[in-house]
Write a structure and sequence with these properties.
about 300 residues; alpha+beta; two-stranded antiparallel sheet
């Protein structure tokens, strides 16, 4: 996926941190939309952080006759129900390149700082436990990250370490002037929110249950990824007033997301139309409760 706006940081070349996760049982979530032709990484199992609010692990087993799970029969409960809108937050975007010098670290650091501020305030008002994620920057991703070899992704979330991982180079971030890097960072952060609220744990409990078909696992994975798209939209909706962006910029972002939909071989994130639909739902409502992909009809999460 893509990253967020920068903050402060040294323009000097960065040393590559040690590999973040040793286990392979996919411990990373790739929520970033990759450059054309790139593959999307798999996600792995993790438990929600201690002390976080848990969605009922009794993820429900039945669906309504219409094929649309109701609130009680959805595979995962909506932890944001009744929490209200995300408060407006000022988050001006710093330039990704300034005077010919890449400022990608600064851009991303600023974005993460803004995400922390917006979501910590929302969790506090809602009475939910919040913990900011760790962040790691690489000039380019090493061979192994979060137990995944050669992760051809824009950015990712290391579940077991609760860490956002951002490469500072690549098509997804270098010399870009659009909103895609910001949306990508917000998408990966959405996975962190899913871990904090128990969504991740409940989703895995359901997906790893004995007898669950591969097709059903893929459907659950899409609901999980589309929820992160929607949560990214909620954040961008909350900072929209502070972004120096035109209607054309927002339309261009929708076009980019539409082009990043699943291809026939990798049915993990949803069709382009559904990715746009859920992102726009979050953007327009600015309400995380509206991101209940779990009780949506199958056609909305295909």
């Amino acid at each position: 996926m893509r990253l967020l706006p920068p903050g402060t940081g040294s323009p000097r070349p960065l040393r590559r941190p040690a590999v973040l996760v040793r286990r392979v049982l996919p411990a990373a979530l790739c929520l970033a939309v990759l450059p054309a032709g790139a593959v999307q990484a798999v996600s792995g199992a993790v438990q929600a952080a201690p002390g976080t609010v848990q969605a009922a692990p009794g993820a429900v087993r039945t669906t309504a006759a219409t094929g649309r799970p109701d609130a009680e029969n959805a595979p995962v409960r909506n932890p944001f129900a009744g929490t209200g809108r995300l408060a407006a937050t000022s988050c001006p975007e710093p330039p990704i390149t300034e005077g010919g010098i890449p400022r990608t670290r600064e851009y991303l650091a600023a974005a993460v700082k803004c995400l922390d501020r917006a979501w910590s305030a929302h969790f506090s008002r809602a009475g939910l436990k919040f913990r900011a994620p760790a962040v790691r920057f690489y000039e380019e991703l090493p061979e192994y990250v979060c137990g995944v070899r050669n992760p051809h992704v824009d950015a990712l979330y290391c579940i077991k370490r609760a860490t956002l991982v951002f490469p500072l180079t690549g098509m997804w971030i270098e010399d870009r002037t659009d909103l895609y890097p910001l949306r990508t960072a917000a998408h990966e952060y959405g996975h962190h929110l899913q871990s904090l609220t128990g969504v991740r744990s409940a989703y895995e409990t359901r997906a790893l249950r004995r007898g669950v078909s591969e097709a059903e696992r893929e459907r659950l994975r899409r609901r999980y990824e589309l929820q992160a798209d929607c949560l990214a939209g909620v954040f961008l909706g909350g900072v929209r007033h502070s972004l120096a962006r035109t209607g054309r910029d927002w339309a261009a972002l929708s076009d980019t997301l539409r082009a990043r939909g699943d291809d026939p071989e990798y049915r993990t994130h949803g069709t382009g139309a559904n990715r746009v639909r859920w992102f726009r739902r979050g953007l327009d409502t600015v309400s995380p409760a509206a991101c209940d992909t779990w009780s949506a009809p199958p056609s909305r999460v295909s």
